[in-house]
Design brief:
Strand order of the largest sheet: 4-5-6-8-7
Strand content: 35-45%
Radius of gyration: 15 Å
Order of helices and strands: HEEEEEEEE
Oligomer: single chain
Shape: globular
Largest sheet: 5 strands, mixed, barrel
């Protein structure tokens, strides 16, 4: 899809983006203190250990916060107005910034309401996680 801003995919974030392409929400977990975390980095933000691994998250959580965007002058976002930027509290603990699923009604957003992940294929090089109501 022309006009989408692609993230910079580096060695630390590649497993996350590869997981999205496979329909898996990948986060990191420290094997030293057993804390899950996101965004990807080589050292645990809790205990600073480098004993970390990738795990597949459940894809379930709660809607922690959101902001509905009503104006955006550039494509590809202009044609999707209004849309919502959200923060999800994953069951595993970390919070993740994402978008409300483009095919879900904004009226279905409920603070602290249950959500689940789905994946939006932007183009052949990018699939991103989005969240909607958990049924």
């Amino acid at each position: 899809m022309a006009g989408w801003f692609h993230p910079i995919i580096d060695v630390e974030s590649r497993p996350f983006w590869d997981g999205c392409a496979e329909g898996k929400l990948m986060i990191m977990r420290c094997t030293a203190c057993d804390k899950a975390y996101f965004y990807p980095r080589a050292h645990c933000p809790t205990c600073w250990s480098d004993k970390v691994e990738w795990i597949e998250a459940s894809g379930r959580g709660t809607l922690h916060s959101y902001s509905i965007v009503h104006q955006y002058p550039a494509e590809p976002f202009q044609s999707r107005l209004p849309y919502a930027n959200i923060i999800v509290q994953l069951e595993e603990g970390p919070r993740l910034m994402s978008n409300w699923a483009f095919d879900a009604s904004l009226d279905d957003m409920k603070m602290d309401g249950p959500v689940k992940v789905s994946f939006f294929k932007v183009d052949d090089d990018l699939t991103m996680p989005v969240f909607g109501p958990a049924d």
